[in-house]
């Protein structure tokens, strides 16, 4: 499974997001290739469609796509809306877990890859 | 350079979301005055927003006053414009002034770098606490250290806060 963790170092939440991602992958028993990508300029943020730090894409899909769509690309901290409606600078473990499970399910359905 | 504990408050006069201007001298009766650098768009601000407002409401009748200041460059972050500040203050019924620091001079004079970033002054307007509101932006139920509340309680009790400095947690102030 391919996972991208895009971050901007000025926003302090990416280390915790990375820890949550690692923990979920371990709990789910999923092996993934994680690319940690630093986004450092406004131009790069626009080019990547980076809605804020941290952004996690599992198998190319944002873990909270509706949030990504509502945020213009730029160097900023990202706002997540958690399951209970609270705003947070971090995605919840459950949010990450749902994305990982969905991608794992799709991989299973598509069968072994050559 | 950031204000240090024992430094005196630096005065300002800034435009409030209600169209008036506010300066700390007009809040002279406050036994404790918290100047908090703030904004609209930052998720750390959003995460702490209800907690900070609840704290102000709880302590308002005990002579505690918060003043929020937004110094972000609204050209880069339109969500932090004066009009958007007005909208946010109305939507959340902010119980405190929410001021715009268009020139960014106030943030620079305080040495503020993040939103939110708290500067709590005592009755003599000496800085007694600087840093984060508490130790967990992400989860109010997981808070173990209520820095701002504890510092206010200490000041109201005539004591020095046990913790006078913590690292502000939040978004960087968006400079021009």
Write a structural description.
The complex is a heterodimer of chains A (114) and B (176). With 114 residues, chain A is an alpha+beta fold. Chain A has one domain: Glutaredoxin. Chain A is 40% helix and 19% strand. Chain B is an alpha+beta fold and 176 residues long. Chain B is 24% helix and 20% strand. Chain B has 4 helices and 9 strands, in the order E-E-E-H-E-H-E-H-E-E-E-H-E. In chain B, strand 7 and strand 8 (127-131) form a beta hairpin. Chain B starts with 13 loop residues before the first strand and ends with a strand. The mean pLDDT of chain B is 97.
Topology record:
The complex is a heterodimer of chains A (114) and B (176).
Chain A: E1 2-7, H1 14-28, E2 33-38, H2 42-48, E3 55-58, E4 61-62, H3 65-70, E5 80-81, E6 87-88, H4 93-110
Parallel strand pairs in A: 1-2
Antiparallel strand pairs in A: 1-3, 3-4, 5-6
Chain B: E1 14-16, E2 21-22, E3 32-38, H1 43-59, E4 64-70, H2 82-91, E5 98-100, H3 105-110, E6 114-115, E7 117-121, E8 127-131, H4 147-156, E9 171-172
Parallel strand pairs in B: 3-4, 4-5
Antiparallel strand pairs in B: 1-2, 1-5, 3-7, 6-9, 7-8
Largest sheet, spatial ordering of strands of chain B = 2-1-5-4-3-7-8
Structural class of chain B: alpha+beta
Q: Approximately how much beta-strand content do the residues of chain A carry?
A: 15-25%
* Name given to the CATH architecture of chain A: 3-Layer(aba) Sandwich
Mean pLDDT of chain A: 93
